[in-house]
Write a structure and sequence with these properties.
The protein is mostly beta strands. The chain has 2 helices and 20 strands.
Length: 264
Amino acid sequence: MQRVNLSLKKKNKIPLEAETLTPDAFAGKNEEEIKALSVWYGNEKRLLGDFFKVEVQGCAKPEETKILIKGDLSRVKRIGQGMTAGEIEIYGNVDMHCGSNMEGGKITINGDADSWLGCEMKGGEILLKGNAGYYVGSGYRGEACGMKGGKITINGNTKDYLGEHMCGGEILVKGDTGLLPAISNNGGTIIIEGSATMPASEMKKGTVIIKGKVSDFLPSFFEEGCEELEGLVYRKFTGDVNVGGKGVLLISEGSLKTEAKKKK
């Protein structure tokens, strides 16, 4: 087992691009080797050790490497980007793109996360204990697929465009979401325990489950009766018919004050 402790020396005002901050990059390296890894400070190439205090215990493969990071990382981007194994635990807030394109392992964030959390991830797990920004689990602009696998759990709220172009995997939000969650959804499962506004627009495939209040419900879904899950009764809709969609939208009974088309 390898354990790497990082602590931010001081909060940086200029964004720090730290995609080398992964178990894959740290595995088997000593303290000086980790300090010598490259990061981008604005448009300037710098060393990881310029910004973090580093302590290393043990030596192991990526799947047996755990990184603990302390400090306000709200200006540190791309932590865990592309990681395939191991674990990262963060005590503080993080900037954009945390866990993007990750394929395996686990990231735990004891704080809030900015936008693009877990974008285009293919596997692994992200647990966010605070709130998230925009485009959680989505695809970058111009891409047909966002998240393809893995699981993202958010204990707080999210902003707009949750799971945009999602093609697989699972997202669980225990709080509220912003506008257009599951927009252009093309696979996977999104569970929203709080409220949602205008969900599942242009959805083609996948499943969206909403337990809280739904506002601005789109008229482009057929209602197909009810479905019971884990003791709760949901109204079942399919669509979005505007795009020939066959996705499933389950909305908790009593949380939606609208009539929908009945499928003939």
